[in-house]
Amino acid sequence: MWKPLIERMNNVKIKNKLIFAYIFIVALPILGIGGVVVDYFRQSALDNAIEQTTNNVERVKNQMDTMLRVPIDISNKLLFDSRLSDVVNTRYTKVYDLVVAYHNYQEFQEYLRLYSEISAIRFYTTNNTIQNNLEFMKVNNEVRDSKWYQTAINSRKINWIYRNDIEISETKKLSLVRKINFTDYTTNGVLVIELSQSYLNSILSAEPFETMILDHSGYVVAAKDITLIGKQLGDPELGISTDLQGKGIYERDVKGQLSNIVVDEVMPDSSDNGLKIISVFANESIVRDSNRIILIGTGLLVLILCTGLLFLYLISHLITRRLSGLSRQMNKVGTGDLKAVSHIAGADEIGQLSRKFNDMVVSIRTLMDQVYESNERNTRLEVSQKEISFKMLASQINPHFLFNALESIRMKAHIRGEQEIAYIVRLLGKLIRNNLEIGMKNTTLQGEMELIKSYLEIQKFRFGDRLNYELLIDPQTKAISIPPLIIQPLVENAIIHGLESRENGGLIIIRTLRIDQDIMIDVIDNGAGISDERLQWVKNSLQVNESQQGDRIGLRNVHQRLILSYGATYGLHISSMLGEGTQISFKIPATTD
After folding, report:
1. Which whole-number Å values give the CA distances from 427 to 446, 451, 460, 493, in the listed order?
2. Residue 153 has what pLDDT?
3. Taking a C-beta distance cutoff of 8 angstroms, is the pair 161, 136 a contact?
4. What pLDDT is attached to residue 248?
5. Which residues, including other chains, have CB under 8 Å from residue 471's CB and lie 6 or more apart?
6. Do 200 and 213 contact (CB within 8 A), yes or no?
7. pLDDT tens figures, 430-440
8. How far apart are CA 208 and CA 225, in angstroms?
9. What is d(CA 22, CA 263) in angstroms, rounded to the nearest whole number?
10. Are 282 and 257 in contact (CB under 8 A)?
11. pLDDT band (50, 70, 90) for residue 419
12. Residues with Cβ within 8 Å of residue 254, at least 6 apart in sequence
């Protein structure tokens, strides 16, 4: 039954469809119920205004109860958080240990991510080894003498205080302030959870009348009119007297107008103080608003009926023209023109369809460019990887002869009791074999570090006490996949250019650390360092795409291989101080084969 009717409607032109829609959906319903609604609205608007205000205040109170429950629950959890206790009460002798502790303790950030009701969580402690990081704050004299801190220290319950820390911000915010005792350490501190000002304001933004939230001292902590935030009850800008005692409805003169003031209170659980909600409306505005709404409604009714047909024709014309334009651009794409662009504006479905069409064309072009770029990058990476093998193969005389000779030398040294020489010769053989067998396949970071350790042991045999090294390897990084010979050239560069001129005390540190989804690798030396001019020259040379003939496998090769392997955001970062040393760092994605 419905299918033939739907097919017939689909064959009707859009203009005629809109006329039918106007008659049956707009004109007839409005004419039928318009008169009834206007008469009913006139009578009920006045009665509902006062009741609405009281209900609105009750709703704001419920929303505040819900909002305040979030920081209360968080503070209750932190009250028994043993990890927080350990972070706050540990005596840190090294900055690195403190940084690691901060990095590992993410509860504050997790709460901020989960709950939009709060904007900051801070813990104030007297532990002198703590460094301020906007989450853990060391109590100084100014904080210790502040009224909010003294209130928290001397109270066993939660306090709601309109406060700020001048060292962090000049803006005051309503905050949960609570003392936390650590029984295991017989110490304490003060937890501060700042409520989100935007969230507080959003609770009041939709209120029809002026509504405010005040703390126990009479300060406005949130208001529909945000210019009133920070004012105190009794301020001339508020125009509200201070004789409002407890919950109820008061009739007062506010800014020269007789007004009704609805007052309610919010007293959260386990709190020493609470908040006060005040909503103000002028008696005259209730009647005036009701009359204005009736006039506006009547005017709109007449306007809709008089101008509906005129707009109907205009809308149908606009829709047809825009659809035709979009169809022409689609035909161009169908013929292979990927530069076709639809210029149809608007936020309706046709405008959205036009933007999606443009996005689709751009995506097709981008995909084609990415395929080409990916093929080009893979080709360059393959050439770069093979370049290592070719340069190593150039040094091959006869691998079997070389390994047999080294093994003979090692055995001779071992027989004669030269254990150190035998050990170094074995490392040298292992190092040369690894270099000769290098190929396109990635290795693991642990395998690369074993190669580097062999290389450093040989260099230490050469330099003696002039060279020392440290391998600080994060256990989480050992199985990470890494291109071969990506770190060894950096170590070689540090020895040749940084430490060869030192007579003693040379130190190389190779450090790996997992940070989220990346692995950070640092090669640090305390050698001669690089001047600013030379450092800038080295950084510029990393951007050269082709190495000149005769260049060794060095920084440029490593830098370009990193970019080819992982993208333009990866590569070497070099920092140095003349006479103090050099640090070369890079990161790779934390992936395994």
Report:
1. 16, 9, 12, 20
2. 92
3. no
4. 83
5. 449, 452, 453, 510
6. yes
7. 666 666 555 55
8. 11
9. 47
10. yes
11. low
12. 239, 240, 261, 280, 282
